[in-house]
Design a protein that fits this description.
Elements (H helix, E strand, L loop, with lengths): L3 E4 L11 H10 L3 E8 L5 E3 L20 H5 L19 H11 L2 E6 L6 H15 L8 E4 L2 H10 L4 E6 L6 H7 L4 E5 L5 H9 L3 E5 L4 H10 L3 E4 L2 H5 L5
Parallel strand pairs: 1-2, 1-9, 2-4, 4-5, 5-6, 6-7, 7-8, 8-9
Antiparallel strand pairs: 2-3
The structure holds SN-glycerol-3-phosphate.
């Protein structure tokens, strides 16, 4: 299993959640990436972390209120570095095609805008059913939003789900059981070794985000964390086997 997962592609190496970012992650040597999917106003699944396009493009606006064509007018690379000028906010579809070419597995984080929880999960599942590359291991769906994961559970019970949290809640096992989740994805800054042990002892997978220091990754692996999301796969791969 991959121990290093490129976070939003390789977020410190190339602009996050772009095709260039996924290529950069593959060039670093990771075998799996994580990225965020939400819907445009015309219900096209796109790969974008924030509700708004402001931070990661040269435009402004709430993605859920913009059409795909409007979002595509904006540059999603030059904010990071001028050499990435011309990158666009990718569609989920074109991202999947590229993953197939690069041989990258994926953690697909559902990032629904408020009120679009069900529709986001449904559209993502529909696209995965039709377009997930056959050469890749099956993806995992994750989300901070239990309501989106519940919809995924109903419409695609066969697709692996992970409960995404900042801190491990006291009712984590009830939540994970209800969602028939295979794993918890947890912010490493709040994770305690005792929590890691309980999660692993109960038979769940455990991934930690966002880990950019090799020593911290090693410590987490020693706690039983199976994989870490990292912005710097180049740095971590030098000392951690992927
Ligand atoms: O999926 C792990 C991690 O990406 C969650 O945090 O803020 O990047 O969605 P965020």
């Amino acid at each position: 299993m991959a121990r290093l997962i490129g976070h939003r592609g390789a977020a410190r190496v190339a602009p996050e959640n772009t095709l260039a970012g996924f290529r950069a992650a593959a060039a670093c040597g990771v075998r799996m990436v994580e990225f965020d999917v939400r819907l445009t106003r015309d219900l096209i699944p796109i790969v974008l972390h924030d509700d708004r396009i402001d931070r990661t493009t040269d435009g402004q606006g709430d993605a859920a209120r913009m059409t795909y064509a409007e979002i595509r007018r904006h540059d999603a690379g030059s904010w990071f570095d001028p050499r990435f000028r011309g990158e666009r906010v990718p569609s989920f579809s074109e991202t999947l095609a590229l993953l197939g070419e690069l041989g990258l597995g994926a953690i697909v984080e559902l990032k629904p805008a408020s009120g679009q929880e069900a529709e986001t999960a449904e559209r993502v599942v529909e696209t995965l059913r039709q377009e997930w590359p056959e050469n890749l291991p099956s993806p995992t769906l994750s989300s901070f939003r239990s309501d989106a994961l519940e919809v995924a559970q109903r419409v695609a019970p066969d697709l692996a789900r992970a409960v995404l949290v900042k801190k491990v809640p006291s009712d984590w096992q009830t939540r994970a059981d209800a969602l028939e989740a295979v794993a918890l994805h947890v912010d490493h800054r709040y994770l305690k070794s005792s929590e890691a042990a309980s999660i692993r002892d109960a038979g769940f997978g455990l991934f930690a985000y966002t880990v950019n220091e090799p020593d911290r990754a090693e410590e987490l692996f020693n706690w039983g964390v199976e994989a870490v999301f990292t912005d710097c796969p180049d740095r971590l791969l030098a000392s951690v086997a992927s």
